[in-house]
């Protein structure tokens, strides 16, 4: 069997290491001749490999229209005899023997392009040693925070980096193991407002949707310290972060909600609501109360647990002991929340309307006798009717203003 091909047209390619004049050039004829290793083949020559001998042969290209004896399909002579496995192995052996073996200089040049495997393994081991885990990073940051030589800016920087890490549930639980949680709770008593602010932020991030951290925080006295921050004279950023941490601690944790009510949490939020210059705190306080009301209602009526387990009944008993709505009515919140309807911000009005609807059972009679509330609701109804109509004109049938209009009309319907 013979496999044929052609040398490409154009200039012959010569490596930089060899002088073209030093190469022996093959002189082709119209007959097949054997090619010796290292011979240069002129461009346009016809080259083939004889599989019987493993040798390469070359000749001049056939004239146009001329067809070699035996007929050809592509570049394989289909009229040749068949070969046994031994003959093919022998031909391949000759082919390997004729292969070009790189010189020592070529091997060295090739090795210089790549690093040895042992060296790469050593470098990877060093990189593995240098790569810190989140646990190691948190430990290092706590050491930085605790260092007597650390400046205020360095301690704040450590808290900022910790806040990013403790968002992850596992990291937050490891944070307890290395003593970070108790350290942060203690920092809430710091004389530096900026440390109090960032400590509360770290605490709130670690608490978010993390029952293990919630339990440890209540046992560590976090609830009392947060209430103290909210009840005393503090900069607004500190109170915002403390209220964030408080909300993270109370959500989906009925035991903490009971403690919150017993420790006078509603009085603290009431004072925040009535304080001057704390408009954003008022909205956050009402939102927290609304979330607690709805959370209890959902689990008692429908169930927050997708698959009730052994602790479900315990959760139901705990929520049943959280008497939030009666205490809200007793503390005068039925008259406080409607004040938010005067806000020009639609988001604030939405939160107020949702809270009013959630507080309807104990507050209904008071709402019915409140002419100011009825007037405010009528004005909002008129305003949101026009805005909802504009939304529908743009093809938005279920727009935001339509939703607000639905809340207003639901309030009016319950007061009739």
Commentary on this structure:
By secondary structure, this protein is mainly alpha-helical. The chain has 21 helices and four strands. It has helices at residues 85-97, 104-112, 117-130, 134-146, 152-165, 169-177, 180-187, 193-207, 211-219, 222-231, 236-250, 254-262, 265-274, 279-301, 312-320, 324-330, 333-336, 346-358, 360-368, 371-393, 400-415; strands at residues 2-6, 33-34, 46-50, 55-59. It has a four-stranded antiparallel β-sheet with strand order 1-3-4-2. A hairpin with a 4-residue loop joins strand 3 (46-50) and strand 4. Helix 14 packs across helix 18 (346-358) and helix 20 runs antiparallel to helix 21. The chain is elongated and about 115 Å long.
Helix/strand/pairing class, anyone?
mainly alpha
Determine the fraction of residues in helical runs and give it as a percent range.
Answer: 55-70%
**If strands are numbered along the chain, what order do they take across the biggest sheet?**
1-3-4-2
Number of strands: 4
């Amino acid at each position: 069997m013979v496999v044929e091909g052609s040398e490409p047209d154009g200039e012959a390619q010569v490596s930089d290491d060899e002088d073209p004049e030093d190469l022996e050039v093959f002189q082709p004829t119209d007959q097949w001749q054997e090619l010796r290793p290292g011979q240069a083949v002129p461009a346009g020559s016809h080259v083939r490999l004889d599989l019987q001998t493993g040798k390469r042969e070359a000749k001049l290209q056939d004239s146009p229209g001329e067809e070699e004896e035996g007929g050809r399909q592509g570049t394989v002579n289909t009229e040749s005899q068949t070969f046994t496995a031994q003959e093919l192995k022998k031909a391949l052996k000759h082919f390997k023997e004729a292969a070009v073996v790189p010189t020592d200089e070529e091997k060295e040049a090739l090795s210089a392009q790549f690093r040895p495997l042992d060296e790469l393994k050593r470098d990877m081991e060093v990189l593995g040693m240098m790569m810190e885990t989140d646990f190691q990073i948190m430990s290092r940051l706590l050491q930085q925070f605790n260092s007597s030589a650390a400046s205020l800016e360095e301690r704040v920087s450590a808290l900022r980096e910790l806040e990013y890490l403790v968002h992850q549930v596992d990291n937050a639980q490891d944070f307890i193991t290395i003593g970070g949680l108790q350290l942060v709770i203690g920092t809430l008593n710091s004389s530096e407002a900026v440390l109090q602010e960032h400590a509360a932020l770290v605490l709130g991030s670690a608490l978010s949707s993390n029952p293990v951290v919630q339990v440890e925080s209540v046992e560590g006295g976090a609830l009392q310290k947060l209430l103290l921050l909210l009840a005393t004279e503090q900069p607004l950023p500190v109170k915002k972060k403390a209220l964030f941490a408080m909300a993270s601690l109370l959500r989906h944790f009925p035991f903490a909600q009971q403690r919150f009510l017993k420790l006078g949490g509603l009085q603290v939020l009431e004072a925040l609501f009535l304080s001057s210059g704390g408009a954003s705190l008022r909205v956050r306080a009402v939102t927290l109360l609304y979330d607690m009301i709805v959370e209890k209602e959902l689990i008692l009526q429908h169930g927050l647990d997708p698959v009730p387990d052994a602790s479900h009944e315990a959760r139901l008993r705990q929520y049943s002991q959280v008497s939030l709505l009666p205490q809200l009515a007793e503390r005068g919140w039925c008259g406080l929340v409607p004040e938010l309807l005067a806000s020009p911000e639609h988001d604030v009005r939405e939160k107020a309307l949702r809270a009013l609807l959630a507080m309807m059972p104990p507050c209904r009679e008071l709402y019915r006798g409140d002419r100011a509330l009825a007037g405010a609701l009528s004005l909002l109804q008129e305003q949101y009717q026009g805005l909802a109509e504009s939304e529908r004109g743009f093809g938005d049938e279920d727009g935001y203003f339509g939703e607000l209009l639905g809340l207003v009309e639901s309030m009016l319907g319950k007061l009739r």
